[in-house]
Amino acid sequence: MSNIDQLRNKIDEITIQMLKLLKERTDISKQIGELKKSSGLSVFDEKREEQLRTEVANLCKQIGLDESIGKKFLNFLLNESVKVQSDGKQTHLTIFLKAKTLEQQGKKIIHMEVGEPDFMPSPIIKSALAEAYDKGLVRYGPAQGMPKLREALAQYCTKKFGANIKTENILVSPGGRFSVFLAISTLLNPGDEIIVIEPAWPAYRDCAANAGVKVRTIATTLENSWDPSISEIENTINSNTKMIVLNYPNNPTGKVLSPKLQDQIIELAKRHDLYVLSDEIYSEYAFSEWKSILSNNYPKSIVIQSFSKSHAMTGLRIGYTITDPKIIEKMVKLQALCITNVAEPVQYAALKALEADTTQNARMVKSKISILVDEAKKIGLEFANPDGAMYLFAKINKPGFDGLEFTNRLLDHGVAVAPGDGFGSYRGFIRISACQDEGSLKKGMMILHEVLEEQ
Ligand code: PMP
What we know:
Largest sheet: 7 strands, mixed
Oligomer: single chain
Shape: globular
Distance between the termini: 74 Å
CATH architecture of the largest domain: 3-Layer(aba) Sandwich
Bound molecules: 4'-deoxy-4'-aminopyridoxal-5'-phosphate
Helix content: 40-55%
Number of strands: 11
CATH class of the largest domain: Alpha Beta
Order of helices and strands: HHHHEHHEHEHEHEHEEHEHHHEHEEH
CATH topology of the largest domain: Aspartate Aminotransferase, domain 2
Structural class: alpha/beta
């Protein structure tokens, strides 16, 4: 046998051995998952992961393996463990779907689990959709979005966010969710790391997992007013870290970062050459001092915006990304591959929606939040007053409280809220959405109180 064949046989043998070990590892991981489930432990265990990460780094040094590759391989394994252990995880969406099934069976449900304005979009949208038809805007178009809409958005953003935004900085997508998916899928590679500050909207984690990207969590606490620690972020950054995600005003806490802390995070990202994915879709509902990261003029920032919340257009599925044209180029390729372009009538409606006055929407959301805050205070929930967004993230101070069990039980009483667990390791929390009329909010909170007292 020639030398190369011998070596090839050896490499095959090693690969087979590695796969056998992977199978053994997966089986053990499943067993750990079952044990975690039965004892109410979170799937995620940052401390354990960190211990192993240090061991891997030391081993790499010892055996002369590139540390970055060693850690990427570890990230792959850790993500596999999360995948096999996350089966049946419940989030606000699971509760929403359960609530919908109950409604189909004739039950009345007060929806305080989803983030969807309960008011209609402006009538401008209705006439714009009809007008689009009359104008023949029912065809394929450029994947990046209608030039007229991108021009209008560039002007709108320049005025709104204090930055010089051009048409080539805009990518129109079917909703903020898809923009997040595009950014994570195109800018990151398997084994790369992304920093997510929790509690967080679950899609960042899910999009990362889908792309084989490892999430490094920065957990924040109610006690610390949901402020992330700069030194913790800095200590988490390593050669595989490629992106940090910000979402302020935040879903679920309603937190807005102080401009100083936000600037410090951007400075840190600049120093380490990280992308900053800033999901700013609640910016219209910021009730304390808020600024877009666009004002920092950092070329590696990717800002996500949407018409869903600001213009109550959730079902029309339209949002946009504001970023460097080089980044747009990458994202647009995947968008073209997946969807060709956003529906033309919807883009036209969005163009017209920019003329609508949304200050009334903001006023309504603010008043709904203040009703929720008053009701929550009356029944003794613990929370930080939201600075914006549409939610209240409340801690239930009862020994052994389990948000998952509670949200399911509350649903049986006709009220849907979201379990804290869907936003990170926050089992003792629930997220209550303010997207209901005053009567329903008060009734929902009354039932919630009754069910809490039952325990
Ligand atoms: N970002 C955040 C923080 C959200 O809460 C949501 C929806 N709940 C989205 C993005 C997605 O919005 P859409 O896709 O409807 O624009």
